[in-house]
Amino acid sequence: MKRILIVFGTRPEAIKLCPLVRQLRLSPDAYTVKVCVTAQHREMLDHALDAFSIQPDYDLDLMQPRQTLAGLTARILAALDPVLETERPDLVIVQGDTATTLAGALAAFYREIPVAHVEAGLRTGDMAQPFPEEMNRVLTSRLAAWHFAPTARAAEALLREGTAREKLFVTGNTGIDAVLYVRDALDSGALRAPDWPWLEPGKHLVLVTSHRRESFGPGLESVMRALARLASRGDVQIVYPVHRNPNVTGPAHALLAGLPHVTLLDPLPYVPFVDLMRRCKLIITDSGGIQEEAPSLGKPVLVLRAKTERPEAVDAGTVKLVGVDQDRIVAEAARLLDDPAEYARLTRIHNPYGDGHACERIAEALAKQPAVDRA
Ligand code: UD1
Ligand code: UDP
């Protein structure tokens, strides 16, 4: 029996790992699976845990207002080590590119516990974009013994860096398992979304999120001004669940609160958010996870970044990089809203990131290994 400890801390990691927790727990004879959350995020993490009815075995409750990267990383290392000492897992699973991902992998490495990295191999090749996530990914790949790449392109990046082929599996992204599960449950009525009484009938719903560190300051302000200009067209409603980072809430509220046809919300729990993605005309975001999910719902995405580590949907033509330039955002959004041919071009339902079975593939790969070996 393998003892597996799954470590995560932020909203996107939870959304992408809770389906894996559920999948691995289908084989209680093969694995004992425990969950340790760092709670690098608090409410936003709890929303995602609730959506999948997962109760952590350990909650390190580490979030602090305006936490720094170094302070957070140090606290995670210090708080996780006693958990590893108590649990002595055969394998630690981490996901993605956050401070929790890197510190979780490093803490396990220091205890000589093998690490499996879910969503491995995403690269822009630029350590400044996204910051610090690109570096977190590269370092986590070096620390990991096993690599679950979402796409063939991500696997190729790992092979180029010298990752052993037999430790590398192309699985699809577990985030697609999550979004398809919620979409199907909403369709069947097994899950219900709110009524959204404030949705303006007859307007195009433009759903917005943003939180990238490299855009804080002038970049984010330029985005907010573009959204204000879009709202002033009169035929759209901007709906923006604002990330709790004070570097985001500050400019969002200063530049958008109270404008006609702009609805600022607190971060939404996952099920309502998927419902809004289903209802919207267009998504404007810098989120990694939303770039991956939207093609499954047939929604076009304008990405508020200059570079993406998720180029597959850009190549497939359902996602467009627009950066943070105000005029470019307004022009590209107007093109989609006003040109049905352009809109049709970006709304093919085709998802290069997965088919909803990534967790099964990861479980299969883990089951085939007679023993979990060291890096
Ligand atoms: C983190 C990740 C980023 C990921 C993003 C997902 C790192 C370095 N960054 O960025 O890769 O894309 O999460 O959203 O790991 N806060 C709350 N409540 C919450 C969550 C955050 O109040 O539930 C506030 C706190 O003041 C906190 C701040 O947001 O200090 C920043 O949170 P942090 O996790 O450090 O950075 P994010 O920008 O969320
Ligand atoms: N999401 C959510 N509520 C919101 C905004 C986003 O549940 O109000 C979900 C979204 O569907 C995706 C994930 O959160 O699954 C993305 O998280 P985030 O944008 O914070 O991080 P990133 O993916 O950029 O690392």
Write the layout of secondary structure elements.
Blueprint: E1 2-8, H1 11-24, E2 31-37, H2 43-51, E3 58-59, H3 69-87, E4 91-95, H4 99-110, E5 115-118, H5 133-143, E6 146-149, H6 152-160, E7 168-170, H7 174-188, E8 204-209, H8 218-231, E9 236-241, H9 246-256, E10 262-265, H10 270-279, E11 282-285, H11 288-293, E12 301-303, H12 312-316, E13 319-321, H13 326-338, H14 340-345, H15 358-368
Helix pairs in contact: 1-2, 1-7, 1-15, 3-4, 4-5, 7-10, 8-9, 8-13
The structure holds uridine-diphosphate-N-acetylglucosamine and uridine-5'-diphosphate.
Uridine-diphosphate-N-acetylglucosamine (UD1) binds next to helix 1, helix 2 and helix 3.
Descriptive overview:
By secondary structure, the chain is α/β, with parallel strands linked by helices. It has two domains: 183 residues, Rossmann fold; 143 residues, Rossmann fold. It has 15 helices and 13 strands. The two termini are 20 Å apart. The site of uridine-diphosphate-N-acetylglucosamine (UD1) has 24 residues, from helix 1, helix 2 and helix 3.
Write down the overall geometry: globular
The CATH topology of the largest domain: Rossmann fold
* Overall radius of gyration: 20 Å
The total beta strand count reads 13
Cα separation of the termini: 20 Å
Question: What keywords describe this structure?
Answer:
single chain; 375 residues; alpha/beta; Rossmann fold; 2 domains; seven-stranded parallel beta sheet; six-stranded parallel beta sheet; 15 helices; 44% helix; globular; binds uridine-diphosphate-N-acetylglucosamine; binds uridine-5'-diphosphate
